[in-house]
Amino acid sequence: MKLRIRTLLAATCAALGLSAGSAGAQMADWEAKLYEAAKAEKEFTVYTAHYNTEEIANLCSVFEKKYPGVKCNFVRTTAQVAFQRLQQDLKANRPVASVFSSTDVSHYPALRKMDALMQYKPHNLVKMVDSLKEYSDPEHYSVTTAAALMLITYNSDLVKEADAPKNWPDLLDPKWKDKVSIGHPAFSGYVGTWVVLMRKLYGWEYFEKLEKNNPQIGRSVNDTVTMLNAKERWVAAGPEATTLLSRDKGNPLAVVYPTDGALLMVSPSSVLANAPSPNAGKLFIEFLLDKEAAEAQVKSHSLSVIKGIAVGPGKKPLEQIKVVRPTEEEIAKGIPEVKEKFRDTFGI
Helix H segments across the chain? Predict the structure, then answer.
């Protein structure tokens, strides 16, 4: 009878994805200890610019399912707004966020100087795609937790595939006057990095010519998706993932992988030195480098930062895409510079 009870218990636990002992019995020792410490903290908050609201809400839901008893709160804004909010928290000595995730890599050296980041080497770092490891801080004050592409996007009801821009300079063609949408480098880390890249490839003349096409300038790079859907603009310098997610919902959107290279966006995360929930923050970083988070991100058309995750349906594999990216030094130095030049050129 005891044997039959144990067998029944084991079968029931297996059906629920648990071991016969407890929910944490299948975890590694370090993960189980970190999970227990995070449960004692009960909840944490992440300031993030990596995803749109729907994506981060889904990631938090997946996290809470994997780690019951630890609530994942998030504040999703543009990179610069997240940074400003964090600076306000630091000055007021009223910490809110335990994790900071920005698309603007220039934020991290600044935060290092303020002693605002916790040094933490994730155990799951070994799972990372080898080609992305070079973008993580070797001193482990931040780690790459998201990767995506910025490319050319368009409304396929308004633009035929054959007529769509094929490279970045094509957006300068006068035929796109009053039809281009872009974001603003003073708000978006994606856009800031893209502006640095265009300046590197084509000089500031690129933006002087683009200004003549009277682009509609939003804040977030994701604003370009809204503009295309509303048919207020026809083509854009926009995000691959959010554009394809919108297409999945039936909107007439398409992407072009520029012949001169799609911008590879590699975005870090850090546990904050004054984190109200440091253990939960560390656990979330580990989660972002694990299978469940990677699978959720791939479904949202983002790139997996860890090995062994298949690309989503309709997604072009990364190895088939020409990608370009400024160096970290060029980004950190260049974004503050291009913010001012952008305002001077476009008047906003």
Answer: 2-15, 29-41, 53-66, 79-92, 107-113, 189-202, 205-211, 223-229, 240-248, 278-288, 291-299, 328-346
Query: Number of helices and strands (H, E) in the chain?
Result: 12, 10
Query: CA 56, CA 336: separation in Å to the nearest integer?
Result: 27
CA distance 320 to 283: 33
Closest CA to 289 of 136, 148, 127: 127
Using CA atoms, how far apart are residues 257 and 280, in angstroms rounded to an integer?
38
pLDDT digits (tens, 9 = 90+) for 207-257: 999 999 999 999 999 999 999 999 999 999 999 989 998 999 999 999 999
Contacts of 147 (CB under 8 A, 6+ apart): 132, 264, 265, 266, 267, 302, 303, 304, 305
d(CA 142, CA 125): 11
Q: How far is CA 77 from CA 8, 84, 220, 269, in A?
A: 48, 10, 8, 15
Dump the DSSP string for 186-229.
TT-HHHHHHHHHHHHHH-THHHHHHHTT--EE-SSTTHHHHHHH
Question: Burial, 136: exposed, middle or buried (Cβ in 10 Å; 0-12, 13-18, 19+)?
Answer: buried
Q: Give the 3-state secondary structure of residue 44.
A: strand
Residue whose token pair is 């966006």: 265
- Token pair 């964090």 is found at 86
Q: What is the pLDDT of residues 96-130, one digit of tens each?
A: 999 999 988 889 999 999 999 999 999 999 999 88
Q: At a CB cut-off of 8 Å and minimum separation 6, what does 29 contact?
A: none
